[in-house]
Write a structure and sequence with these properties.
Enoyl-CoA hydratase/carnithine racemase, single chain, 254 residues, 2-enoyl-CoA Hydratase, Chain A, domain 1, six-stranded mixed sheet, 11 helices, Enoyl-CoA_hydra/iso, alpha/beta
């Protein structure tokens, strides 16, 4: 099951990732996110979209079962295309997208958060680009929409998380709230935006995307090329194998 739920009420569409226990993503989920956001393009009863996760985690990155597929060059290229299209369906959605970050946003979860126009997060939520720990060169271009470059470099090169409070201080999060107040805060913000004319919101979103174009497809292609270049090395497979086995990696550092 894709685990993507859609609800529309009072011009606000809520897209929820519901794949317990951790909202990990697989190919089917990326495609379902893409198709859900594409379907919103055809509707005239939407002004704002809220993207969130069910449970205690926003999104926990890629599902372990599909890691071996990402270790094969040809399959990796196909997989990256699916992931990229999922990200871009959120980033290029013609309506403003508010990310309601209910917990950890790891790997692709961090990238999806970056694709949102505005973010509201619960206290203590962690944002991580943990790809370096599993042998993948990840979607830093999308995460760069949340934090300054030097902060992004730390996240990417260390794989260590930042809290919602830290990203708030860097200007990447609009509001940090207690856990029980997240959706109320997200819908309050959504209703604030929805007071404006639907066509004005659409044109502003288009204008903002054009004026602050970050060439994200090119950056994501750089990620793919770097991952493919890493493939022949022992440490590429060792990183993901160790992560799946929950053991320390044994790198040869060549």
């Amino acid at each position: 099951m894709s685990g993507i739920e859609l609800k529309i009420e009072n011009y606000i569409a809520t897209v929820t990732v519901n794949r317990p226990p951790a909202n990990a993503l697989n190919k089917e989920t990326y495609i379902a996110i893409r198709d859900t956001f594409y379907s919103l393009e055809e509707r005239d009863d939407v002004k704002v979209v809220v993207l969130t996760g069910a449970g205690k985690i926003f999104m926990a990155g890629n599902e372990f079962d599909e890691f071996p597929e990402m270790m094969e060059r040809k399959a990796c290229t196909t997989y990256y295309d699916i992931i990229r299209n999922g990200y871009l369906s959120v980033k290029n959605c013609k309506y403003p997208v508010i990310g309601a970050i209910n917990g950890a946003a790891v790997g692709s979860g961090c990238a999806f958060a970056g694709c949102c126009d505005l973010l509201v997060a619960v206290e203590g939520a962690k944002f991580a680009l943990s790809e370096i720990k599993v042998g993948i060169i990840g979607a830093d271009g999308f995460a760069s929409l949340m934090v300054p470059e030097k902060v992004l470099r730390y996240m990417a090169l260390s794989g260590n998380p930042l809290t919602a409070e830290e990203i708030y201080r860097h200007g990447g999060i609009h509001q940090v709230v207690p856990k029980g107040e997240l959706m109320n805060a997200a819908y309050k913000l959504a209703n604030e935006l929805a007071q404006n004319a639907r066509r004005a919101l659409i044109q502003w979103k288009l204008c903002l995307n054009q004026n602050y174009e970050h060439d994200l497809p090119k950056k994501f292609n750089n990620n793919l090329n770097a991952t493919v270049a890493y493939h022949p090395y022992h440490d590429f497979k060792e990183a993901s194998s160790a992560f799946i086995a929950k053991r320390p990696p044994e790198f040869d550092n060549k």
